[in-house]
Amino acid sequence: MNGMPILVTGATGAVGGALVRQLAAAGHDVRALTRDPSGPAARALPSTVEVVAGDFDDPKTLVPALRGVARMHLVAMGGAVGPAGAEIVALAEEAGVRRLTHLGHDDFSRDDDDPLETAHRSLRRTIEASSMEWTHLFPGEFATNTREWAAMIRASNEVRAPFPEWRSALVHEADIAAVARVALTEDGHAGRVYIPTGPVAVRRAEAVRQIGEAIGREVTFVELTPEQAREQWEAVYPAQIIDWFLEMGQNPDTNAWVSPDVETVTGRAARPYAEWARDHAADFR
Ligand SMILES: NC(=O)c1ccc[n+]([C@@H]2O[C@H](COP(=O)([O-])OP(=O)(O)OC[C@H]3O[C@@H](n4cnc5c(N)ncnc54)[C@H](OP(=O)(O)O)[C@@H]3O)[C@@H](O)[C@H]2O)c1
Protein backbone atom coordinates (compact mmCIF):
# COMPACT_ATOMS: atom_id res chain seq x y z
CA MET A 1 0.00 0.00 0.00
CA ASN A 2 3.03 2.24 0.40
CA GLY A 3 3.65 4.58 -2.51
CA MET A 4 -0.05 4.83 -3.31
CA PRO A 5 -1.95 7.94 -2.24
CA ILE A 6 -4.16 7.82 0.84
CA LEU A 7 -7.57 9.31 0.06
CA VAL A 8 -8.93 11.56 2.82
CA THR A 9 -12.58 12.56 2.48
CA GLY A 10 -13.95 15.43 4.55
CA ALA A 11 -10.50 16.95 3.99
CA THR A 12 -11.73 20.52 4.43
CA GLY A 13 -13.40 19.59 7.72
CA ALA A 14 -12.08 19.56 11.25
CA VAL A 15 -10.90 15.96 11.52
CA GLY A 16 -10.15 15.40 7.82
CA GLY A 17 -8.08 18.60 7.66
CA ALA A 18 -6.02 17.54 10.68
CA LEU A 19 -5.59 14.06 9.17
CA VAL A 20 -4.39 15.46 5.83
CA ARG A 21 -1.80 17.59 7.62
CA GLN A 22 -0.58 14.76 9.85
CA LEU A 23 -0.25 12.29 6.97
CA ALA A 24 1.50 14.84 4.76
CA ALA A 25 3.87 15.80 7.60
CA ALA A 26 4.73 12.10 8.02
CA GLY A 27 5.69 11.93 4.34
CA HIS A 28 2.65 10.08 2.93
CA ASP A 29 1.15 10.88 -0.46
CA VAL A 30 -2.24 12.36 0.31
CA ARG A 31 -5.23 12.92 -1.95
CA ALA A 32 -7.83 15.23 -0.42
CA LEU A 33 -11.48 15.07 -1.48
CA THR A 34 -13.74 18.10 -1.49
CA ARG A 35 -16.81 19.25 -3.37
CA ASP A 36 -15.07 22.56 -4.00
CA PRO A 37 -11.39 22.16 -4.95
CA SER A 38 -10.96 25.87 -5.67
CA GLY A 39 -12.57 27.03 -2.41
CA PRO A 40 -10.61 28.68 0.42
CA ALA A 41 -10.60 25.57 2.65
CA ALA A 42 -9.08 23.43 -0.10
CA ARG A 43 -6.55 26.13 -0.99
CA ALA A 44 -5.42 26.20 2.66
CA LEU A 45 -4.33 22.53 2.53
CA PRO A 46 -0.57 21.83 2.31
CA SER A 47 0.77 22.40 -1.21
CA THR A 48 2.09 18.82 -1.45
CA VAL A 49 -1.45 17.46 -1.18
CA GLU A 50 -3.35 16.51 -4.33
CA VAL A 51 -6.83 18.02 -4.13
CA VAL A 52 -9.61 16.24 -6.05
CA ALA A 53 -13.29 16.91 -6.61
CA GLY A 54 -16.00 14.48 -5.54
CA ASP A 55 -19.45 14.51 -4.00
CA PHE A 56 -20.97 11.71 -1.91
CA ASP A 57 -24.38 12.77 -3.21
CA ASP A 58 -23.27 11.66 -6.68
CA PRO A 59 -21.07 8.60 -5.99
CA LYS A 60 -19.82 8.22 -9.60
CA THR A 61 -17.92 11.49 -9.13
CA LEU A 62 -15.70 9.58 -6.67
CA VAL A 63 -14.34 7.20 -9.31
CA PRO A 64 -11.38 9.41 -10.38
CA ALA A 65 -10.57 10.18 -6.72
CA LEU A 66 -10.45 6.46 -5.89
CA ARG A 67 -8.11 5.52 -8.74
CA GLY A 68 -4.90 3.93 -7.44
CA VAL A 69 -6.00 4.26 -3.81
CA ALA A 70 -5.48 1.42 -1.31
CA ARG A 71 -6.23 3.32 1.91
CA MET A 72 -9.05 5.72 2.56
CA HIS A 73 -10.63 7.78 5.32
CA LEU A 74 -14.40 8.06 4.95
CA VAL A 75 -16.35 10.71 6.84
CA ALA A 76 -20.02 9.90 7.31
CA MET A 77 -21.50 13.05 5.81
CA GLY A 78 -24.00 13.97 3.11
CA GLY A 79 -24.91 11.17 0.74
CA ALA A 80 -22.57 8.69 2.48
CA VAL A 81 -25.20 8.58 5.22
CA GLY A 82 -28.03 7.53 2.96
CA PRO A 83 -28.73 5.29 0.00
CA ALA A 84 -25.40 6.31 -1.61
CA GLY A 85 -23.42 4.85 1.31
CA ALA A 86 -23.51 1.30 -0.04
CA GLU A 87 -22.53 2.49 -3.53
CA ILE A 88 -19.58 4.47 -2.13
CA VAL A 89 -18.32 1.41 -0.22
CA ALA A 90 -18.74 -0.79 -3.34
CA LEU A 91 -16.86 1.74 -5.50
CA ALA A 92 -14.04 1.83 -2.98
CA GLU A 93 -13.76 -1.96 -2.97
CA GLU A 94 -13.85 -2.10 -6.78
CA ALA A 95 -11.12 0.52 -6.98
CA GLY A 96 -8.88 -1.63 -4.77
CA VAL A 97 -9.21 0.10 -1.40
CA ARG A 98 -7.92 -2.41 1.17
CA ARG A 99 -8.05 -0.38 4.36
CA LEU A 100 -10.67 2.13 5.48
CA THR A 101 -11.16 4.31 8.51
CA HIS A 102 -14.75 5.41 9.04
CA LEU A 103 -15.54 8.53 11.08
CA GLY A 104 -19.14 8.53 12.24
CA HIS A 105 -20.92 8.09 15.50
CA ASP A 106 -22.38 5.31 17.54
CA ASP A 107 -26.14 4.97 17.68
CA PHE A 108 -27.15 7.52 20.22
CA SER A 109 -30.90 7.23 19.85
CA ARG A 110 -31.22 3.50 19.08
CA ASP A 111 -34.43 4.65 17.47
CA ASP A 112 -35.47 2.63 14.43
CA ASP A 113 -37.71 5.49 13.30
CA ASP A 114 -34.92 8.05 13.20
CA PRO A 115 -33.85 8.14 9.52
CA LEU A 116 -30.42 9.68 10.17
CA GLU A 117 -29.55 7.10 12.82
CA THR A 118 -30.83 4.30 10.60
CA ALA A 119 -28.59 5.56 7.79
CA HIS A 120 -25.53 5.71 10.09
CA ARG A 121 -26.26 2.15 11.22
CA SER A 122 -26.64 0.98 7.66
CA LEU A 123 -23.31 2.57 6.58
CA ARG A 124 -21.62 0.88 9.53
CA ARG A 125 -23.03 -2.53 8.59
CA THR A 126 -22.13 -2.13 4.92
CA ILE A 127 -18.54 -1.32 5.87
CA GLU A 128 -18.37 -4.30 8.24
CA ALA A 129 -19.70 -6.61 5.52
CA SER A 130 -17.08 -5.40 3.03
CA SER A 131 -13.79 -7.10 2.23
CA MET A 132 -11.79 -4.10 3.47
CA GLU A 133 -9.81 -3.84 6.71
CA TRP A 134 -12.10 -1.35 8.43
CA THR A 135 -11.72 0.66 11.62
CA HIS A 136 -14.63 2.67 13.01
CA LEU A 137 -13.98 5.95 14.82
CA PHE A 138 -16.95 6.93 16.97
CA PRO A 139 -15.60 9.83 19.03
CA GLY A 140 -17.06 11.56 22.04
CA GLU A 141 -18.13 15.18 21.74
CA PHE A 142 -15.88 17.29 19.51
CA ALA A 143 -14.23 20.30 21.12
CA THR A 144 -15.05 22.07 17.84
CA ASN A 145 -18.71 22.09 18.91
CA THR A 146 -17.82 24.87 21.35
CA ARG A 147 -17.04 27.09 18.36
CA GLU A 148 -20.76 27.84 18.47
CA TRP A 149 -19.82 30.29 21.27
CA ALA A 150 -17.26 32.17 19.17
CA ALA A 151 -19.53 34.93 17.84
CA MET A 152 -20.98 35.61 21.32
CA ILE A 153 -17.53 35.79 22.90
CA ARG A 154 -16.19 38.07 20.18
CA ALA A 155 -19.19 40.36 20.53
CA SER A 156 -19.72 40.46 24.31
CA ASN A 157 -17.24 38.27 26.26
CA GLU A 158 -20.25 36.22 27.31
CA VAL A 159 -21.54 32.75 26.58
CA ARG A 160 -25.30 32.47 26.93
CA ALA A 161 -26.05 28.75 27.23
CA PRO A 162 -27.88 26.30 29.48
CA PHE A 163 -26.39 23.71 31.84
CA PRO A 164 -23.10 25.17 33.19
CA GLU A 165 -22.54 21.97 35.17
CA TRP A 166 -22.95 19.69 32.16
CA ARG A 167 -19.72 17.71 31.69
CA SER A 168 -18.21 16.34 28.50
CA ALA A 169 -14.83 14.80 27.63
CA LEU A 170 -14.39 17.20 24.70
CA VAL A 171 -11.95 15.74 22.17
CA HIS A 172 -9.44 17.67 20.04
CA GLU A 173 -9.86 16.98 16.31
CA ALA A 174 -6.09 16.39 16.08
CA ASP A 175 -6.47 13.42 18.43
CA ILE A 176 -9.27 11.88 16.37
CA ALA A 177 -7.10 12.42 13.29
CA ALA A 178 -4.11 10.83 15.04
CA VAL A 179 -6.11 7.68 15.77
CA ALA A 180 -7.16 7.56 12.09
CA ARG A 181 -3.57 8.16 10.95
CA VAL A 182 -2.29 5.23 13.01
CA ALA A 183 -5.12 2.94 11.90
CA LEU A 184 -4.43 3.79 8.26
CA THR A 185 -0.67 3.52 8.36
CA GLU A 186 0.04 0.76 10.90
CA ASP A 187 -1.16 -2.84 11.11
CA GLY A 188 -3.31 -4.27 13.89
CA HIS A 189 -6.37 -2.00 13.83
CA ALA A 190 -8.69 -3.92 11.48
CA GLY A 191 -12.13 -4.69 12.88
CA ARG A 192 -11.71 -2.29 15.80
CA VAL A 193 -14.08 0.37 17.06
CA TYR A 194 -12.27 3.30 18.64
CA ILE A 195 -13.96 5.95 20.74
CA PRO A 196 -11.57 8.89 20.94
CA THR A 197 -12.38 11.30 23.79
CA GLY A 198 -10.59 14.02 25.64
CA PRO A 199 -8.59 13.10 28.77
CA VAL A 200 -11.15 14.37 31.32
CA ALA A 201 -14.74 15.58 31.41
CA VAL A 202 -14.95 19.37 31.42
CA ARG A 203 -17.89 21.36 32.82
CA ARG A 204 -19.37 23.80 30.30
CA ALA A 205 -18.67 26.72 32.65
CA GLU A 206 -15.05 25.56 32.99
CA ALA A 207 -14.64 25.29 29.21
CA VAL A 208 -15.80 28.90 28.93
CA ARG A 209 -13.29 29.94 31.61
CA GLN A 210 -10.50 28.15 29.72
CA ILE A 211 -11.36 29.99 26.50
CA GLY A 212 -11.09 33.23 28.48
CA GLU A 213 -7.65 32.16 29.69
CA ALA A 214 -6.59 31.31 26.13
CA ILE A 215 -7.62 34.73 24.78
CA GLY A 216 -6.52 36.70 27.83
CA ARG A 217 -9.99 38.10 28.64
CA GLU A 218 -12.58 37.16 31.23
CA VAL A 219 -15.51 35.38 29.61
CA THR A 220 -18.72 34.98 31.61
CA PHE A 221 -21.12 32.06 31.44
CA VAL A 222 -24.67 33.41 31.49
CA GLU A 223 -27.01 30.55 32.28
CA LEU A 224 -30.11 30.22 30.12
CA THR A 225 -33.18 28.27 31.12
CA PRO A 226 -33.97 25.32 28.83
CA GLU A 227 -36.82 27.41 27.31
CA GLN A 228 -34.45 30.31 26.55
CA ALA A 229 -31.91 27.86 25.10
CA ARG A 230 -34.58 26.37 22.83
CA GLU A 231 -35.36 29.86 21.50
CA GLN A 232 -31.68 30.59 20.86
CA TRP A 233 -31.05 27.23 19.15
CA GLU A 234 -34.18 27.34 16.97
CA ALA A 235 -32.34 29.38 14.35
CA VAL A 236 -29.53 26.80 14.16
CA TYR A 237 -30.73 23.25 14.93
CA PRO A 238 -33.75 21.13 14.01
CA ALA A 239 -36.31 20.63 16.82
CA GLN A 240 -35.38 16.96 17.24
CA ILE A 241 -31.71 17.82 17.95
CA ILE A 242 -32.76 20.55 20.39
CA ASP A 243 -34.96 18.04 22.24
CA TRP A 244 -31.99 15.70 22.41
CA PHE A 245 -29.64 18.44 23.75
CA LEU A 246 -32.17 19.46 26.38
CA GLU A 247 -32.79 15.89 27.44
CA MET A 248 -29.04 15.29 27.79
CA GLY A 249 -28.72 18.48 29.79
CA GLN A 250 -30.93 16.99 32.51
CA ASN A 251 -28.12 14.60 33.34
CA PRO A 252 -24.79 16.42 33.79
CA ASP A 253 -22.82 13.20 33.27
CA THR A 254 -24.27 11.88 29.99
CA ASN A 255 -21.09 12.68 28.06
CA ALA A 256 -18.64 12.57 30.94
CA TRP A 257 -17.19 9.17 30.11
CA VAL A 258 -13.53 9.02 29.12
CA SER A 259 -12.01 6.38 26.87
CA PRO A 260 -8.32 5.42 26.85
CA ASP A 261 -8.29 4.96 23.05
CA VAL A 262 -6.34 8.06 22.00
CA GLU A 263 -3.41 7.15 24.22
CA THR A 264 -3.65 3.39 23.61
CA VAL A 265 -3.63 3.78 19.82
CA THR A 266 -1.29 6.75 19.37
CA GLY A 267 0.98 6.36 22.41
CA ARG A 268 0.36 10.02 23.28
CA ALA A 269 -2.05 11.30 25.94
CA ALA A 270 -5.21 12.95 24.63
CA ARG A 271 -4.95 16.74 24.45
CA PRO A 272 -6.84 18.62 27.19
CA TYR A 273 -9.55 21.12 26.26
CA ALA A 274 -7.31 24.00 27.40
CA GLU A 275 -4.90 23.08 24.60
CA TRP A 276 -7.74 23.07 22.07
CA ALA A 277 -8.78 26.54 23.31
CA ARG A 278 -5.20 27.80 22.85
CA ASP A 279 -4.97 26.24 19.37
CA HIS A 280 -8.21 27.97 18.35
CA ALA A 281 -7.88 31.21 20.32
CA ALA A 282 -8.02 33.26 17.11
CA ASP A 283 -11.62 32.13 16.54
CA PHE A 284 -12.70 33.67 19.85
CA ARG A 285 -10.75 36.94 19.81
N1 LIG B 1 -19.59 16.94 16.37
C1 LIG B 1 -19.51 15.94 17.25
O1 LIG B 1 -19.53 16.15 18.48
C2 LIG B 1 -19.36 14.54 16.74
C3 LIG B 1 -19.25 13.51 17.68
C4 LIG B 1 -19.08 12.19 17.22
C5 LIG B 1 -19.01 11.94 15.85
N2 LIG B 1 -19.13 12.97 14.96
C6 LIG B 1 -19.04 12.65 13.51
O2 LIG B 1 -18.02 13.41 12.90
C7 LIG B 1 -18.33 13.58 11.51
C8 LIG B 1 -18.08 15.03 11.13
O3 LIG B 1 -16.69 15.25 11.19
P1 LIG B 1 -16.03 16.70 11.12
O4 LIG B 1 -16.48 17.50 12.32
O5 LIG B 1 -14.61 16.57 10.83
O6 LIG B 1 -16.84 17.31 9.92
P2 LIG B 1 -16.86 18.80 9.40
O7 LIG B 1 -15.76 19.60 10.00
O8 LIG B 1 -18.27 19.28 9.51
O9 LIG B 1 -16.49 18.53 7.87
C9 LIG B 1 -17.32 17.79 7.09
C10 LIG B 1 -16.65 17.49 5.77
O10 LIG B 1 -17.55 16.67 5.02
C11 LIG B 1 -17.46 17.05 3.69
N3 LIG B 1 -18.74 16.77 3.05
C12 LIG B 1 -19.97 17.16 3.47
N4 LIG B 1 -20.90 16.73 2.59
C13 LIG B 1 -20.22 16.09 1.61
C14 LIG B 1 -20.62 15.46 0.39
N5 LIG B 1 -21.90 15.41 -0.01
N6 LIG B 1 -19.66 14.90 -0.39
C15 LIG B 1 -18.35 14.95 -0.04
N7 LIG B 1 -17.92 15.55 1.10
C16 LIG B 1 -18.85 16.11 1.89
C17 LIG B 1 -17.12 18.53 3.65
O11 LIG B 1 -16.26 18.73 2.55
P3 LIG B 1 -16.51 19.86 1.39
O12 LIG B 1 -17.50 20.87 1.94
O13 LIG B 1 -15.15 20.45 1.18
O14 LIG B 1 -17.00 19.08 0.25
C18 LIG B 1 -16.33 18.72 4.95
O15 LIG B 1 -14.95 18.70 4.73
C19 LIG B 1 -19.78 13.15 11.32
O16 LIG B 1 -19.79 11.88 10.70
C20 LIG B 1 -20.31 13.00 12.75
O17 LIG B 1 -21.25 11.95 12.85
C21 LIG B 1 -19.28 14.25 15.37
Write a short abstract of this structure.
With 285 residues, this protein is of the alpha/beta class.
Give Rg in angstroms: 19 Å
Mean pLDDT across the residues is 95
Helical element count?
13
Uncertain residue ranges: none
The total domain count is 2
Strand content: 5-15%
The ordered H/E elements are: EHEHEHEHEHEHEEHEEHEHHHHH
Could you walk me through the main structural features you see in this protein, from its secondary elements to its overall organization?
- The protein is an alpha/beta fold and 285 residues long.
- It folds into two domains: 6-138, Rossmann fold, CATH 3.40.50; 143-169 and 199-256 and 272-284, UDP-galactose 4-epimerase, domain 1 (Alpha-Beta Complex), CATH 3.90.25.10.
- It is built from 13 helices and eleven strands.
- It has helices at residues 14-25, 40-43, 63-66, 84-95, 115-128, 150-156, 173-185, 204-215, 226-233, 239-249, 261-266, 273-279, 281-284, and strands spanning 6-8, 30-34, 50-53, 71-75, 99-103, 133-137, 158-161, 167-168, 192-194, 202-203, 220-223.
- Strands 3-2-1-4-5-6-9 form a seven-stranded parallel β-sheet, with helices on both faces. The protein has a two-stranded parallel ribbon with strand order 7-11. It has a two-stranded antiparallel sheet with strand order 8-10.
- Strand 4 (71-75), helix 4 and strand 5 form a beta-alpha-beta unit.
- Helix 1 packs across helix 7 and helix 9 packs antiparallel against helix 10.
- The chain starts with 5 loop residues before the first strand and ends with a helix.
- The structure holds NADP nicotinamide-adenine-dinucleotide phosphate.
